[in-house]
Amino acid sequence: QQGELNSFLWTIRRDPPAYLFGTIHVPYTRVWDFIPDNSKAAFQASSSVYFELDLTDPYTISGLASCQMLPHGENLQDVLPRELYRRLKRHLDYIKLMLPHWMTPDQRGKGLYADYLFNAIAGNWERKRPVWVMLMVNSLTETDIRSRGVPVLDLYLAQEAERMKKRTGAVERVEEQCHPLNGLNFSQV
Predict the structure, then answer these.
(1) Is the pTM of this model over 0.85?
(2) How far is it, in rounded angstroms, from Cα 91 to Cα 102?
(3) Which of 39, 86, 119, 185 has the fewest CB atoms within 10 Å, i.e. the most exposed one?
């Protein structure tokens, strides 16, 4: 029941009111029906919307991509223990083999090819820092592959805000996301 859902919507009482709503980085279709009406109404009523990062900005996307890379032309093979690297390579080979079977007819109907999808997700994986490879591997599941092409909730809301001509922005910069993850030492990763 919509009325019984906890909205996780905070209201800052001022004129006009301000709202704080926590999102989750999953395809919006997985959670949209569970977002209470009061949260959707707050979004509709707002003239400005600020997100964690501006996922509609090409500079944000390229900044995220570059911060994931190992420095000085290093390769993952240079920094991972040999056996772990071999297991990772075997797993990614398995994913590449399974990808065509995991894709939906709708994805294929939109002209999405398994090789393209694999390269979009895992391309250049041998040049990425271990923490980003770990996050990438965690997203290479059948369920996640089947929802590729559906924007995550943050991106969906940003796209909707732009479509509705709302002012948009971000509260964090790419560096504020990247540096903490890149600062983890190998044993933490």
Answers:
(1) no
(2) 15
(3) 185
- The string of pLDDT tens digits covering residues 15-50 is 999 999 988 888 899 899 989 888 999 999 999 999
DSSP string, 158-174: HHHHHHTT-EEEESS-H
**Whole-number Å distance between alpha carbons of 138 and 10:** 31
pLDDT digits (tens, 9 = 90+) for 72-91: 989 999 999 999 999 999 99
Q: Cβ neighbours of residue 99 under 8 Å, at least 6 residues apart?
A: 114, 117, 118, 145
Q: At what angle do helices 37-45 and 153-163 cross, to 10 degrees?
A: 40
3-state secondary structure of 69: strand
Question: What are the structural domain ranges in the chain?
Answer: 7-181
